[in-house]
Amino acid sequence: MHHELVLILDFGSQYTQLIARRVREQGVYCEIHPFHLSTEAIAAKQPKGVILSGGPSSVTDEDAPRVENDFYDKAGAPILGICYGMQLVAADLGGTIEPATRREYGHATIKVLSEKTALFDKLPFEMNVWMSHGDHMTRMPDGFHSVATSKDIPTAMENHERGIYCVQFHPEVAHTPLGKEVLRNYLFNICGCKGDWTPASFIREEIEKIRQTVGPDGNVVCGLSGGVDSTVAAVLVHEAIGERQRCIFVNNGLLRYREFEDTLQVYEDNLHLNVTGVDASQDFYSVLKDIVDPELKRKAIGSKFIDIFQEEADRIGDVKWLVQGTLYPDVIESVSLRGASVTIKTHHNVGGLPEKMNLKLIEPLRELFKDEVREIGRDLGIPEMILERHPFPGPGLAVRILGDITPEKVQLLQKADRIFIEELHNFGIYKDVWQAFAVLLPIQSVGVMGDFRTYEKTVALRAVTSTDGMTADWARLPHDFLAKVSSRITSEVRGVNRVVYDISSKPPSTIEWE
């Protein structure tokens, strides 16, 4: 089935992926491409609409990113310019853009000027929006008319004859409460979309695509991590070809508490996957011995995983395809904004295996965002214990133990982490955070337990709120909750006498410590 398509040209905005998610929430399939996608390539895709994203550049800069000269006449679909996209339209079509005396960032109120506006059809005449720009338009291009203002400055303009619509604010962010309705007007009233993109239709089409790709006799191998992406990918492929998919779930000794045992049971008993569990903990501990540098840890773990995975795959024999849980952000983040790179991240999931084993890739989720994967997982009957599990790094606890790795440190951190996650569930706030985990620090400090002086380890707790992990804010967890977790860890985890809470956001920090 050919789905209606909306294209988003990315000019570097931190919100570009959010625009795509908002469009897909309306049941319309969309793709993100670099701004330099040729007009010919755009027209060839026959889009229902083209959205120009925001971006950090100023259109007054000499090297500002731009579309091709014939874009506005030959794109073949209605255009929506957002923030930088609006300024680009104005500058390219004869308007004037000048640096503002004061950067406008944050909440603003706009006034809609007329009922005769396609973007604000059936919306209030006054709306709260979110602004983020340093330039402003002082003269509109010929043929455009202003449909909304903020402090008497045009913040939205339309040209019905040319099919070009622009807003200075960001309709895609939650801080613009009626932004979804603005986008909906663009998609359905202006572009004429019907909304035929659903998880159910995706599942049907992807299963048929996998069957055609693999053929009636092809065998497939899948490396399971225990996480959402690889599990949903494996279940989709299982629906398509059944037992001809052989799954391998490797315990590297760096998973969360009882994660290997509990998840393997779900794979076998609930999802009925053809899965082999391999406990290779000691192999990984051996290659990690005395390694402190986090990048060297990652390389050692990746190399050992490839060796073990290949050894298990060789036992199966006659395998031609490898399933990977690559998601759409993995694909678009590997496309250079400034150059025509199309390289996919090779380190995702089981990087290095396709080349070494001469396998072809099956990536059934490569068009999806994480929230869409979870929705599809629910339709496929995957338990919530997997779908709602917080993100977990590929190297596992190796990058949450600062310093060298020993089995004793892993067990200590597993116990502390289990208490943290357990109490998040007990307090009913697990789903309120994007990611939460404990970190074992290479720090010992003085403490008192009973009548004895102690000199033991420190555990840091990390919890963040986010929508996609690209930016994150530290979670404002209740004080009584933190007190309970700290008390339990210092009482129940032998070797820890101090617990601290990380209140850093991303940026400037990262979510993980290493």
Explain how this protein is built.
Helices cover 34% and strands 25% of the residues. The protein is an alpha/beta fold and 514 residues long. It has three domains: 5-190, Rossmann fold (3-Layer(aba) Sandwich); 199-387, Rossmann fold (3-Layer(aba) Sandwich); 406-501, GMP Synthetase, Chain A, domain 3. Helix 1 links the parallel strand 1 and strand 2. 39% of the residues are buried. The model is unreliable at 338-350 (pLDDT under 50).
Q: Give a short account of the largest sheet.
A: 9 strands, mixed
Give the strand order, joined by hyphens, for the main sheet.
2-1-3-4-9-8-7-5-6
Gyration radius over CA: 26 Å
Which percent range fits the helix content?
25-40%
DSSP helix count? 16
CATH-scheme architecture of the largest domain = 3-Layer(aba) Sandwich
Structure classification: alpha/beta
What is the CATH class of the largest domain?
Alpha Beta
- Output mean pLDDT: 89
Strand content: 15-25%
Shape: globular
How many DSSP E strands?
18
